[in-house]
Write a structure and sequence with these properties.
Layout (H helix, E strand, L loop, with lengths): L3 H24 L4 H26 L7 H18 L4 H23 L4 H21 L1 H4 L12 E2 L2 E2 L3 H24 L1 H11 L1 H6 L4 H27 L9 H14 L4 H17 L7 H15 L3 H10 L26 E12 L2 E12 L3 E5 L6 H8 L7 E6 L2 E2 L5 H6 L2 E3 L12 H9 L9 H15 L14 H13 L5 E5 L7 H16 L4 E4 L3 H7 L2 E6 L2 E6 L1 H6 L1 H15 L1
Parallel strand pairs: 5-10, 5-11, 8-9, 9-10
Antiparallel strand pairs: 1-2, 3-4, 3-6, 6-7, 11-12
The structure holds adenosine-5'-diphosphate and magnesium ion.
Amino acid sequence: MHTASSRKNILIAGGVAALAVLGAAVVAPSDGYYLNIMMQAATYTIAVAGLVIVLGYCGQIALCQAAFLGIGAYCVALGTVDYGLPFFVALAIGVVVSGVTGIFLGFATLRLGGHYLAMVTIGFQMIVTMVLTNWIGFTHGPDGIPGIPRPSLGLVDLKGGSVYLGLCLVVLVAVTVYAALLKQSRLGRAMQAVRDNEIAASTCGINIFRTKTVAFGICAALGGLGGGLFAGAFSYISPDQFTFNEAIVLLTMALLGGVESAIGAVIGTILLVLLPEWLRFLRQAYLAVYGGAVIAIMIFMPRGVWGLVVGRFVKSRPLSDDATAPLPLLARTGEVSDTIVLDVTGLAKHFGGLKAVDGVDLAVRKGSVHALIGPNGSGKTTMLNVITGLYVATAGRVRLGGRDITELPPHDRNRLGMCRTYQNIRVFRGLTVLENVVIGAERAGNDVSGTDATVERAIAALDFVGLRQVAHLPVGDLPYGHQRYVEIARALAGSPEILLLDEPAAGLNLTEKGEMAALLKRLKGHGTTIVIIDHDMRLIEKVADHITVLNFGRRIADGDPRSVFKHPEVVAAYLGEARHEAA
Ligand code: ADP
Ligand code: MG
């Protein structure tokens, strides 16, 4: 999958496609009507590919792609017509201006979620349309800009229609190849992780805000690129070509074709550019049929046309059985040392009046398995959330390896070696089992670098939990219990300094519980430092070196298993819960 060979395949396919489209464009009859439709499709598709990245890869809504199309187009039009710049210089300016504007817009708005983000992008789209229409002195206003020249590249003249179309198509192929490579890159995986589960992405070391902002910037830059080429294609532009309506059309193109890949952008755009032409014979009924067709495609192909094709026909192959080096943590000695790895003092987390965690101390020794137990609602998960940085502590300090990390965001704590799993499974559903675990292996502080090495580390982690055979499957295809193993493998692949497990056996059946206990014992044997929350006292008794007991957010006992289980308050708390559950 992630290997150099698949990158090479994409590049070869791209090269062949570029030659083919170039040939086709030059040889094809240069009838004006055909050329116009093709040029519109090609330039729009480049902008739609941007939406595939921001919406399909990163899961963020952007209702302003027509604004970036417009910025690119106006940079080329004004640059060449009013300021006498060479075409390609103006085009580059358009790409940079759009990209930078996109990053700024992302910076200002991406902390807002869902609906708010949609509203703000609509607002931005409106503002751009208004500026293009009303700043007459600069943009020529509603009259638009005629006479935009086409470029020549050295000795090659690109002014002819079919040659210029060839240029647009080659750029389109390059953008499609870029999008495909991006999807398999570390950045692309981070985007997809953010899309699928922001919380898990952050504790896997991904800077969510930065990832979203970069996605927005790339989307906007591609909008500008498409717009700049559009201006050259039609030699005349005006503000009404870049309105909110067009933004919706671009979004529909992306959704229709399928946002999983830039191929979807190609399909969706061609469909939406050609559908009106095909339906022309219907005269008045045309709009109704057109709308109906779009709605039907959306209903019957929720993943878009390309998504349907991929889902039906593309099957990934299992990994080969080639041996990989075992996880390096397996080479460690299983000894508990006196060094305190994780030192939590006076930790508190209040939700309004509710003191979910209330002044708890916790000292985890290197190489030990430290159990955190207590009745339901006693604050165990909250404790883990504060330790990993998902919640801001109300009071108290958290130190990791002697360093105060109380103020650090989750992805920085992950960089320092903190990896965790969740009580309610948080896997990246749109990715394969292997990709999920590769994200874990890409932890910033991990001792592997380079795609092949991280993939190898991920496979080693999958070997350890016994999921190598299903590495190529979408993670959602796995049974619940195995998704828990994926989470554990994802954490292990990062070679954690400390591994925090929140009820790893929850929801498992008896056999699976037994397997999980065996896995935990194997881990313990290799001296991984583990904090584990679990309700299964037999499991805890088998693996724990040290137990801390919480009740109502307070620590009621702390010590070795023998003494803790005899502690009167612990007995009372658990008897109380047993009675409660019986009732
Ligand atoms: P445990 O994991 O020990 O079962 P939790 O840490 O999940 O318990 O919850 C402790 C208490 O904090 C519960 O009363 C729960 O309702 C409350 N709580 C947890 N998270 C939140 C939150 N985000 N907002 C408000 N209350 C919360
Ligand atoms: Mg819990």
